[in-house]
Every structure is written in structure tokens, then in C-alpha cells.
UniProtKB/TrEMBL annotation:
This is Abscisic acid receptor PYL6. GO terms for cellular component: cytoplasm; nucleus; plasma membrane. GO terms for biological process: abscisic acid-activated signaling pathway. Keywords: Abscisic acid signaling pathway, Cell membrane, Cytoplasm, Disulfide bond, Membrane, Nucleus, Protein phosphatase inhibitor, Receptor. GO terms for molecular function: abscisic acid binding; protein phosphatase inhibitor activity; signaling receptor activity. Residues 1-20 are annotated as: Disordered. It comes from Hibiscus syriacus (Rose of Sharon). CDD domains: PYR_PYL_RCAR_like (cd07821).
Length: 213
């Protein structure tokens, strides 16, 4: 049975944000499901977007609809060795351990102008049947410590398009608030998903033009 995701807003892109207000500092782990309340996922996919937060962490999610088949979008998302194909904040990637399967490590180079130089990331989930990818940041020259991202793809209600859901959890850097951290990461994720949508939609229109990706 194909999965579907119900969107009740007319906008194509929106983020869940941090629903936890920064009040008393919690002392125990807590769960965060950052998707907007008007987004409904099948239970088998909702569990991927439940994150366990430590006291100094925040989580959020971004949802992007695109007019391209799931298989076309997934052909881009699943390329752990080539994230720069649609993530324009990256200028290069090199797999340093593994062959692109779960457990592989990659080192990505960040474009100049951002407060980062490189990031070392490990592939945690690669599910070709369910269209789920997850990676975690394990090192690098940046401030996004203990970052973990999960992306799931779902057929749109008309069966012709795709809805991508990307959620994340990350440490709040010293001197920053949860809200500021979520806004910063949300912006990067949203730009990446918008770029993914544009590339996938172009591929759907002219599939033979992107064979080199």
C-alpha cells in the first residue's frame, strides 16, 4: 500500500520549528516530534521523525512538496556520495569510509561565507523501499554538534508528486537560544529542499539531461 502524506495548507514549504519553549532547563531526556500539527504521516514513518533530546538540544522539521515522482526525487536524495547535487551550500564531497551504504563516512566541504569549513557525516539509514535516509554529523569544522537528520519521501495525494519531510536534532551552541538555532538550521534545510524540488522537477521533464549526476 503506497504511503501518503496529508497536507492541509496551500503553501508548498513550511517548517515545524521548536515547539518547546525555553523556560526551565530540563534535566532529563525528552521526545520531540517536530512536524506541524496539520501534517499527518503514516505511523510507520512518524517514528522516524521522533527525536530524543538532551537538555541542550533542539529539533525541528521542514516539509517540501514537489511536482516530481518519488523515484526521481529518491534518485537524488539517496546519493550519499553526491549531496552537493542539490545542496548548494556544499562545494564538494568525498566518501572516506565505506561504499555509500549504511555506516559509510563522508567529508563535505562547505562553500565560503558560512561559519563552517567541513563536516564529517555518517550514513545511519538508507532504505530504498521506504525512501528513508538518515545521517549524523560526527566531526568537522562547524558549530552544529551532534546533528542528526532524517529525510522521508512520500507520494503526494494525487500520486504524481512527492512530499519530502526532513527533521533534525542538534545541540544548541553556547550563547545561542533554541529558537535561533532552529531558525538557522531550518533556513539551510529549506533551501536544500527547494533546490531538490527544482532539480527533481527539471529531471522529470527532461530525464536524459541529468544522466551524469
Amino acid at each position: 500500500m503506497p504511503s501518503s502524506l496529508q497536507l492541509h495548507r496551500s503553501t508548498n514549504t513550511f517548517s515545524g520549528g521548536c515547539h518547546q519553549k525555553q523556560q526551565a532547563q530540563p534535566t532529563t531526556l525528552r521526545s520531540c516530534f517536530p512536524l506541524p500539527h496539520d501534517v499527518s504521516l503514516p505511523d510507520t514513518f512518524s517514528s522516524y521523525h521522533v527525536h530524543t533530546l538532551r537538555p541542550n538540544q533542539c529539533c525541528s522539521a521542514v516539509v517540501q512538496a514537489m511536482e516530481a515522482p518519488v523515484d526521481t526525487v529518491w534518485s537524488l536524495v539517496r546519493r550519499f556520495d553526491n549531496p552537493q547535487a542539490y545542496k548548494h551550500f556544499l562545494k564538494g564531497c568525498h566518501v572516506i569510509v565505506g561504499d555509500g551504504n549504511v555506516g559509510s563516512l563522508r567529508e563535505v566541504q562547505v562553500v565560503s561565507g558560512l561559519p563552517a569549513g567541513s563536516s564529517t557525516e555518517r550514513l545511519e539509514i538508507l532504505d530504498d523501499e521506504r525512501h528513508v535516509l538518515s545521517f549524523s554529523v560526527v566531526g568537522g569544522d562547524h558549530r552544529l554538534r551532534n546533528y542528526r537528520s532524517v529525510t522521508t519521501l512520500h507520494a503526494s495525494l494525487n500520486g504524481k508528486g512527492t512530499v519530502a519531510v526532513e527533521s533534525f536534532v542538534v545541540d544548541v551552541p553556547p550563547g545561542n537560544t533554541r529558537e535561533d538555532t532552529c531558525i538557522f538550521v531550518d533556513t539551510i534545510v529549506r533551501c536544500n529542499l527547494q533546490s531538490l524540488a527544482q532539480l527533481a522537477e527539471n529531471m522529470a521533464k527532461t530525464p536524459n539531461s541529468f544522466d551524469s549526476l
